[in-house]
Design goal:
Blueprint lengths: L19 H6 L4 H9 L2 H11 L11 H5 L10 E6 L8 H8 L1 H15 L3 E6 L4 H16 L15 E6 L9 H8 L23 E5 H13 L1 H5 L2 E2 L2 E2 L1 E8 L5 E6 L4 H8 L9 E5 L8 E2 L24 E6 L4 H15 L5 H19 L4 H12 L12 H26 L9 H8 L19 H4 L12
Parallel strand pairs: 1-2, 1-4, 2-3, 7-11
Antiparallel strand pairs: 5-6, 7-8, 9-10, 9-11
Helix pairs in contact: 2-6, 3-6, 5-6, 5-7, 6-9, 12-13, 12-15, 13-15, 14-15
């Protein structure tokens, strides 16, 4: 295999890489000009299909195939660019937008031409203030230079790109939640079907793609589908931006072929585990993916092999390293707190399940845990989410998978924590005990933490008189 040549990050270290001047000096927009003036939309779609590019946002769905779902007789098409990047510890999209925004704009332009979308919205998370300013400036530069607007390159194709800032909701990383928020409504997912390709933004056919996915498109059209498939592993082709953070000496964003290992990323690119400690576990792609143990660091990080570790998938390929001094009870507590806060509340299993995950971990941390809590957590996690068919979107799966994964791989640590961290004052209330054991609860115990009254309930609520003693 030829030596790997970074393409997505090739401009990252170039001074003023965010400007149109630098981008065009390094060949930028030449591919878009060639595509718009010499190719048909159908031909562009076919090249992307042949490349087997899979979405970099987490799900890994085939991009070219996704584009073919659009109706043939559509009159208007929108493109939504998912720049929400709300998965904790993920920052590869931010680097692409801040350091090479015109690469993204060129990818959007080519993809809009392929799908015949004349308007694209970049939906960016609210906290990305600097990236927003850079993108808006880049769009203004591109429009002034004729790379956006009407009759681009004399091809007869019109395209406009707008930046839309979200409100910082994790759920808006889901494509239909993103569309609802873009339309000015509450950002929560839609029931599907209809899918966005049929009825998306403003009830029109819509394509939703991730930032990194679209940044791959110009390079595929420039170098060819076979070049793209020469990188990576079977069914997981192309370059990938991996981010590594957490307990490492050097947090980093690095471009490598799909299929590298966590050990290589940690030891060779992130400077190893910090403070001379050892790795206990690694979150491979955002906290919703679950955990890899220290024994699984040599598993390839691609869309297929990562599943052998019991993780939900590759996700965003944002590794978070946990050292051997880290309590996994703390890790799971923080994870459950995050998902309980970010659940939109539309689906009862997710709304209630994430809340009870958090309450149970909170009680365990406070010293009121029981060993049977672990079985209850595992049972709830097994039956929650879109995979078992109980929710509209995958947030519940993302909340449940870390629990399943952590308990399957590190249960002894959780059991030891419960045995050694006992505080009687933090234990279950009488109401919780009654619910857990399936016993009728005392009707006066209606609040968490309320003690059982000294006066029996039967004395305060005497039974009705029988007919033999009733007063006539």
């Amino acid at each position: 295999m030829p030596a790997f040549e970074p393409v997505l990050s090739r401009n990252f270290q170039v001074p003023d890489s965010h400007t149109l001047r630098v981008y065009t000096e390094r060949g930028g927009y030449s591919t878009a000009r060639h595509v718009l003036t010499t190719m048909t939309p159908e031909a562009v779609v076919q090249v992307v299909k042949d490349s087997e590019l899979r979405g970099r946002g987490g799900a890994g769905f085939a991009t070219g195939l996704k584009w073919t779902f659009l109706p043939k007789d559509r009159k208007e098409t929108f493109m939504c660019v998912n720049a929400d990047e709300s998965e904790p510890a993920t920052f590869n999209n931010r680097w692409l937008m801040e350091r090479d925004p015109h690469q993204l704009l060129e990818g959007i332009l080519i993809s809009c031409f392929a799908t015949q979308a004349q308007i694209a919205y970049i939906y960016i998370r609210f906290e990305y203030i600097n990236a927003t300013r850079i993108l808006e400036q880049a769009i203004a530069e591109a429009r002034a230079a004729g790379h956006l607007g009407r009759n681009i390159y004399g091809s007869g194709f019109d395209c406009e790109i707008y930046v839309h800032r979200g409100a910082g909701a994790y759920i808006c990383g889901e494509e239909t939640g993103l569309i609802e928020s873009l339309e000015g409504k509450r950002g929560w997912p839609r029931i599907k079907p209809p899918f966005p390709a049929i009825e998306g933004a403003f009830r029109k056919p819509t394509v939703v793609n991730n930032v990194e996915t679209l940044c791959c498109v110009p390079h595929i059209l420039e170098r060819g589908a076979s070049w793209f498939r020469s990188i990576g592993t079977p069914k997981s082709y192309g370059p990938k931006l991996y981010t590594v953070s957490g307990h490492v000496n050097r947090p980093v964003c690095v471009e490598l072929p799909l299929g590298v290992t966590a050990r290589e990323l940690i030891d060779e690119h992130a400077g190893g585990c910090w403070k001379g400690r050892k790795v206990k576990a690694v979150v491979p792609g955002g906290i919703s993916m679950g955990l890899m143990s220290a024994d699984e660091l040599d598993v390839k990080l691609d869309f297929e092999e990562i599943r052998k570790t019991g993780c939900l998938g590759l996700g965003t390929a944002a590794l978070t390293v946990l050292d051997d001094h880290t309590s996994l009870v703390d890790y799971l507590y923080n994870t459950c707190r995050f998902f309980a806060h970010e659940s939109c509340g539309q689906c009862t299993p997710c709304r209630e399940g994430t809340a009870w995950f958090y309450k149970t971990l909170k009680r365990i941390k406070a010293g009121g845990g029981r060993l049977e809590d672990l079985d209850l957590l595992r049972s709830l996690a097994q039956n929650l989410g879109i995979t078992p068919g109980t929710t509209i979107c995958g947030l519940a799966d993302g909340a449940a998978w870390p629990i399943r994964n952590a308990l399957d791989k590190f249960r002894p640590e959780f059991e030891d924590y419960i045995r050694t961290h006992q505080n009687p004052a933090a234990g279950p209330t009488p109401l919780q005990e009654a619910i857990f054991h399936g016993r009728p609860a005392d009707p006066l115990i209606t609040q968490i933490g309320l003690s059982k009254p000294s006066t029996p309930a039967s004395a305060l609520n005497p039974p009705p008189p029988t007919p033999s003693t009733a007063t006539h």
